[in-house]
Design a protein that fits this description.
By secondary structure, the protein is of the alpha+beta class. The chain contains two helices and three strands; from the N terminus they run βαβαβ. The relative contact order is 0.30.
C-alpha cells in the first residue's frame, strides 16, 4: 500500500516561500495567481497492509516526524493498488 502525505504551513502562519512564488509567477505573466502555499510531499510505500491500517500508521508518522503540527497541517491520501501491488495506470 502506498500513501501520499502533503504538508503545508497552517493558514494562519505566514508562508514567505509561497508569497515569493506567487510574486514571481505574477512577474512572469501569471497575474491571475492569487495565492500560493508552498509545502512538501512524501510518498510512502508501506508494503502489503490494509488501507485503514496504512492511514493510521501514516497519521502517526505525520504526528511524530513528518509535520511540525504547531505550524503545519497535513493531508493523507492512501493510493489504490491493483492485485499485483502496483498502482493502476492513470
Amino acid at each position: 500500500m502506498r500513501a501520499r502525505v502533503t504538508v503545508y504551513p497552517r493558514r494562519e502562519i505566514l508562508d514567505p516561500q509561497g508569497k515569493a512564488i506567487r510574486t514571481a509567477l505574477q512577474r512572469v505573466g501569471f497575474a491571475e495567481v492569487a495565492e500560493v502555499r508552498a509545502g512538501k510531499c512524501f510518498e510512502i510505500d508501506l508494503g502489503p497492509v490494509e488501507p485503514q491500517i496504512a492511514a493510521e500508521r501514516v497519521g502517526a508518522m505525520c504526528e511524530q516526524l513528518l509535520a511540525n503540527t504547531v505550524v503545519e497541517e497535513y493531508a493523507i491520501e492512501v493510493l489504490a493498488q491493483d492485485a499485483t501491488g502496483k498502482e493502476p495506470a492513470p
